[in-house]
Design goal:
The chain is α/β, with parallel strands linked by helices. The chain folds into 3 domains: 85 residues, MurE/MurF, N-terminal domain (Udp-n-acetylmuramoylalanyl-d-glutamate--2,6- Diaminopimelate Ligase, Chain: A, domain 1), CATH 3.40.1390; 209 residues, 3-Layer(aba) Sandwich (UDP-N-acetylmuramoyl-L-alanine:D-glutamate ligase); 141 residues, Mur ligase, C-terminal domain (Protein-Tyrosine Phosphatase, Chain A, Alpha-Beta Complex). It contains 17 helices and 20 strands. Helix 2 links the parallel strand 3 and strand 4.
């Protein structure tokens, strides 16, 4: 590896990002890069990013006082006098966001390991985790932490790659055209996987075809020597194959896929087993998460591993070792036999439908169903329609009570009423506390409580509220 923090110099950083050094020594070693003045690591350079709510240029003095060795700033911004007074390293660029990506691209080329990029409307994070669980059995593997999947998070992840890493599993998200293209340009994937294409981020992409075009950016920007992995059972995803001229692998339940699953069986609420077919080989596998959509996630992880020549036995072991993520259909046992399904990490029309299908499989007759639903963000002009349909879907489940939160909550309630729920069974909350109180008042012993919403709605606060009220039972479990 040609790049290592503490060994690269200011001059190399300036060259990589196309910047200009205003002050400071060109030969000074660079020990790291920080983008948040509140978490400034002494000795690092501070890169001032402009966000929706904050501008890092407003915190240059704080960063220096916290120990920054220098700053990377946009050339059109005025600088505090103390930056030049102490001969700190000052580098200017036309765009600090572009500079961050350019530095990550340079670092990635210096590193030289294998990069796997994962995008799609649903299942990105779970597929990432399953793939990393398998790959880590054979190689030192870096994976995107949390939601580090955008134009800031992905470069920061790449810049954390170290000499002993040989694999990197990177998640790519987007909410506007061109974002996946730029992320692909930075990551230079050896393998690129698309989980599926569905209605998500319509506010920035316009319509479903806009989503298709945005996801196709991964295939259009990948090197031809790379491998594309596509969901062969998803019609829109399969159509993208023509956007890539290199080798392609498909996964799904259909027999025409190179990687597929059969004989799927439930083994309790949170485990399912299946026969895993990889080309002409097969092996028994299990995953500790419910729902057929998670079988697809497992197949995606398997396809990645098979492209890297990992044995079917190690693949099955890695899938079995997979630990589900918080907020992705996490099943929490509370006192009184109450089960809470925490699916609050994110939501869109297709992921909601998949979650409800899984609940239908889990729910037993003795359980009453109570639902807390947050709005689905970034659905554009058709947001009201999709929220109305969500209410109808909830009503079809036969819940005893529904409480909703968010700007489009009233549309959910209208849909639920249209679906047959009585007005006394629904409530529109205006705060997290109000939603928590509604659940506390309406949940009974033995109930199944389902909570889901987009990340910005932050229904995890509601989960914590009812956990504290009812108390966690003895057998708390996590799933999805």
């Amino acid at each position: 590896m040609g790049a290592k923090w503490g060994e690269i110099t200011v001059e190399e950083v300036v060259s990589a990002i196309g910047g200009s050094r205003i002050s400071g020594s060109s030969g000074k070693p660079v020990r790291g890069l920080s983008t948040d003045s509140r978490r400034m690591v002494p000795g690092h350079l501070f890169l001032a990013l402009r966000g929706e709510r904050y501008d890092g240029h407003d915190f240059l003095t704080e960063a220096v006082h916290a120990g920054a060795d220098g700053v990377i700033v946009q050339s059109n911004r005025a600088l505090p006098k103390e930056l030049t007074a102490h001969n700190l390293v000052v580098i200017t660029v036309s765009s600090t966001l572009k500079a961050l990506g350019d530095l990550a691209l340079w670092w990635r080329k210096q590193w030289g390991g294998r990069v796997i990029a994962i995008t799609g409307s649903n299942g990105k994070s779970t597929t990432r985790e399953m793939a990393a669980s398998i790959l880590s059995l054979k190689a030192s593997t870096m994976k995107s932490p949390g939601n580090f999947n955008n134009l800031i998070g992905l470069p920061v992840t790449v810049l954390s790659l170290e000499q002993d890493h040989t694999m990197a599993v990177l998640e790519m998200g987007m909410n506007r055209p061109g974002e996946i293209a730029r992320l692909t340009q930075i990551a230079v994937p050896d393998i690129g996987l698309i989980t599926n294409v569905a209605r998500a981020h319509l506010e920035g992409l316009g319509d479903l075809q806009g989503v298709v075009r945005a996801k196709s950016e991964l295939l259009r920007m990948m090197p031809r020597k790379s491998t594309a992995i596509l969901n062969g059972d998803d019609e829109l995803t399969a159509q993208l194959a023509s956007a890539f001229q290199g080798p392609t692998v498909t996964f799904g339940l259909g027999r025409g896929n190179q990687v597929r699953a059969g004989n799927i069986r439930k083994m309790g609420d949170c485990t399912q087993s299946f026969t895993l077919y990889i080309n002409n080989e097969s092996v028994q596998a299990r995953i500790n998460v419910p729902g057929v959509h998670n079988v697809f996630n497992a197949l995606g992880g398997t396809a990645i591993a098979s492209c890297l020549s990992i044995s079917k036995e190690l693949i099955a072991q890695g899938l079995g070792d997979f630990t589900p993520l918080k907020g992705r259909f996490q099943i929490i046992e509370l006192n009184g036999g109450i089960q809470v399904i925490d699916d609050t990490y994110n939501s869109n029309p297709s992921s909601l439908r998949a979650a409800l299908q899984t609940i239908q499989e889990l729910k037993v007759k003795k359980q009453g169903l109570v639902v807390g639903l947050g709005e689905m963000m970034e659905l554009g002009q058709e947001a009201s329609k999709y929220h109305f349909e969500a209410g109808q879907l909830i009503a079809d489940m036969g819940p005893r009570y529904l409480v909703v939160l968010g700007e489009h909550g009233q549309q959910i309630i209208k849909g639920a009423h249209k679906g047959g729920m009585d007005i006394t069974q629904t409530q529109l909350a205006t705060t997290h506390a109000e939603m928590s109180d509604a659940l506390k008042a309406n949940v009974r012993e033995g109930d199944l409580v389902f909570l889901k919403g987009s990340r910005k709605v932050a229904l995890d606060k509601v989960v914590e509220g009812i956990r504290g009220y009812f108390g966690v039972g003895k057998g708390e479990r996590d799933a999805l």
